[in-house]
């Protein structure tokens, strides 16, 4: 892990998720965990992937400059890394009312695997999406 990563991730996360920012201490704890792979985009984007055996999960993703292909580039990199790391499935959670993120994941071929009702603090449902990497 680059020693600057927790601060960079926290700064970008706060811009992408102003209502629920994860602080530097959170990323200091998360980033060294087994299987974690950080991805940063030079124009302001971040993605944290975790690979455990044959399953991978996107822990968080965001961009600070929208509709410029930043999240798509990070997602494509993380999909390639997950495959190279031996994962056959890639999972993530997204709020049902997050139309931008859902459109992004649909574009990449993610499909609905489950729903958690009232999962987020604002009462929104979480959708569990999966991409088959095999
Ligand atoms: C969701 C998010 C990561 C997308 O990042 P981005 O860099 O703007 O995404 P891209 O430019 O790569 O967009 C790729 C595709 O996603 C879809 N998309 C992205 N933003 C969209 C929006 N606001 N409305 C509809 N579709 C959207 C489009 O299909 C888009 O392709 P197009 O621009 O060719 O039409 C960004 O809006 C964000 O950071 N949101 C806040 C954090 C967040 O919700 N993260 C996801 C949590 S699960």
Walkthrough of the structure:
By secondary structure, the chain is an alpha+beta fold. It has one domain (5-132): 3-Layer(aba) Sandwich (Aminopeptidase), CATH 3.40.630.30. Helix content is 32%, strand content 32%. The protein is built from four helices and six strands, in the order ααβββαβαββ. The chain has helices spanning 5-16, 24-30, 70-84, 99-107, and strands at 36-41, 45-52, 55-63, 89-95, 111-116, 126-132. The protein has a six-stranded mixed β-sheet, sandwiched between helices. The chain is globular and about 35 Å long. The N and C termini lie far apart (28 Å). The relative contact order is 0.14. The mean pLDDT is 97. Bound molecules: coenzyme A (COA). The site of coenzyme A (COA) has 20 residues, from β3, α3 and α4. Coenzyme A is lined by residues 16-17, 61-63, 66-72, 94, 98-101, 103-104, 107.
Characteristics:
134 residues; alpha+beta; Aminopeptidase; 6-stranded mixed sheet; 4 helices; binds coenzyme A
Brief sketch in words of this structure:
This protein has helices spanning 5-16, 24-30, 70-84, 99-107; strands spanning 36-41, 45-52, 55-63, 89-95, 111-116, 126-132. The chain is α+β, with helices and mostly antiparallel strands.
Helices and strands in order:
Layout lengths: L4 H12 L7 H7 L5 E6 L3 E8 L2 E9 L6 H15 L4 E7 L3 H9 L3 E6 L9 E7 L2
Parallel strand pairs: 3-4
Antiparallel strand pairs: 1-2, 2-3, 4-6, 5-6
Helix pairs in contact: 1-2
Bound molecules: coenzyme A (COA).
